[in-house]
Amino acid sequence: EKELEYFREAMGVMQHHDAVTGTEKQLVADDYARILYAGMQQGTNVSFQALRKWRSSGNSEFASENMYTCMQLNISMCLYTEDENFVLAIYNPLSQKVVSPIRVPVQQGKYSVVDLTDGNEIASQIVPIPESVQKIPGRRGNATDELVFFASLPPLGYKTYTVKRNSKNINQQP
Amino acid sequence: TGEVSIDNEFYNVSVNKNGHIVIKWKKQNIELTQSFHYYEGMEGNNEEFKNRSSGAYIFRPRSSSVKNFMKPGSYKIYKGPLVQEIHQYVTDWVCQVVRIYSGKQYVEFDWLVGPIPVKDKIGKEIVTRYYSNLNTSGEFYTDSNGREMLKRKRDYRPTWNIELEEQVSGNYYPITSKISLKDNENQLKLSLLTDRAEGGTSMRDGEIEMMVHRRLLKDDAFGVGEALNESAFGEGLVIRGSHYIIGGSLKNLDELAVEEKTLARQLLLRPWPFIIPVETNSSRPY
């Protein structure tokens, strides 16, 4: 409840007309960004706890595992998905089933994506991150490509996928 | 190599000789051309109406005609089983990825604009235009904070007679999430969904114009006391965002409405990915 309160406060502040329209002074805009970021961090903690509870209901081993979120996916940047192996737990906040394209920044290579519900490998594709995106000031990390696959997600539920890099240095030919 | 277009079961997308993106619908007679342009922002001393500057509160271009990017730019095409993409470079500071997914009934424009150069001391407001063959009779539809769609008519106000002195800004409306065009004669509809609130209009029949980024050097004297000249890392801001184009026949209105609403919901409440790192040597099952 306390962690949600940060989010509520941030949303309360953001309802000011200057925040809605973007007519605040730059220093205020920076402060709004700071408040919203802190609120999102707290909200993310709530999501982590919920997912951990869900995942550990079948197997207590999962209860202590670390979970991360990537707030810079908008610039195709995420340090955690640059590892050779990782698990993606994807939550669907809609009350209906969706089949949605998922894009995660990765390093060059050939990848396999396995749906953990049935253990089957699903179709995936690698596309390069445009150079102009890679050059965005302040963007860090070594991701050069994006891994694309379709996640079939249950309503208000989640699915997990394992991602594994099988080989490096696959060149994307235009 | 040698490919000039991408396609799926619904669309064929190509680049024409001017460097503009051309989309052709496979099942309907709709054709659309997309291109980037910019307005130069008005600068004045704000003391009289005619001397008002374009700024955070008001959009006031120096001229009602847009500036074009001179060269056609370059592009690369990437094809695969799930997604096909055109990576287009318009200038050093404007580029985009046009994307179609297999089985998905929309075209995604993933644009990247900035840092807007202002060494010439001229503020610029960047727009993207989607020009279709729809006959829209001066009418278009914009949403109101994601709720009902309101009919807008070019150079018109519903409750008084208006003669617009500034045609472009006078026809701009807030687009929170959607702007649509309808061709009643040919029973066609075209919609553009956004990932954020933007300004937009339809200055010509069949056209949607969306403003995606602005950098202005003078305060407009409406209260903020600062020019809309944001910077990061010592340069102007770089903005990345998406437009989603979806359209079809009004004869299948129910089907089209479901497609549009489903897409709108999926854009508003996107899946949340959480990452769980895996130790490479771990014997623990995933």
Question: In summary, what is this structure?
Answer:
Chain A is an alpha+beta fold and 174 residues long.
In the predicted model, the low-confidence regions of chain A spanning at least 5 consecutive residues are none
β-strand amount of chain A: 25-35%
Overall geometry of chain B comes to globular
Straight-line distance between termini of chain B: 40 Å
Strand fraction of chain B? 35-45%
Terminal CA distance of chain A: 50 Å
Number of distinct beta strands of chain A: 7
Give the helix/strand class of chain B: mainly beta
Residue stretches of chain B low in confidence (pLDDT < 50, at least 5 long) are: 281-286
Oligomer type:
heterodimer
Assign an overall shape of chain A: globular
Mean pLDDT of chain A, to the nearest integer, reads 89
Greatest contact between two chains: A-B, 65 and 46 residues
**Secondary structure tally, helices of chain A:** 4
User: Secondary-structure element order of chain A, as H and E?
Assistant: HHHEEEEEHEE
Helix fraction of chain A by DSSP (H/I, runs of at least 4): 25-40%
Entry keywords:
heterodimer, A: 174 residues, alpha+beta, 4-stranded antiparallel sheet, 3-stranded antiparallel sheet, 30% helix, globular, B: 286 residues, mainly beta, 9-stranded antiparallel sheet, 2 helices, 21 strands, disordered C terminus
Describe the structure in your own words:
The complex is a heterodimer of chains A (174) and B (286). Chain A is α+β, with helices and mostly antiparallel strands. Chain A contains four helices and seven strands. In chain A, helix 1 packs antiparallel against helix 3. The longest helix of chain A is centred in the first third of the chain and has 31 residues, at 26-56. The relative contact order of chain A is 0.16. With 286 residues, chain B is mainly beta. Chain B is built from two helices and 21 strands. In chain B, the strands form three sheets. In chain B, strands 1, 2, 3, 4, 5, 10, 13, 16 and 17 form a nine-stranded antiparallel beta sheet that branches. The relative contact order of chain B is 0.18. At the A-B interface, helix 3, strand 1, strand 2, strand 5 and strand 6 of A face strand 6, strand 7, strand 8 and strand 21 of B.
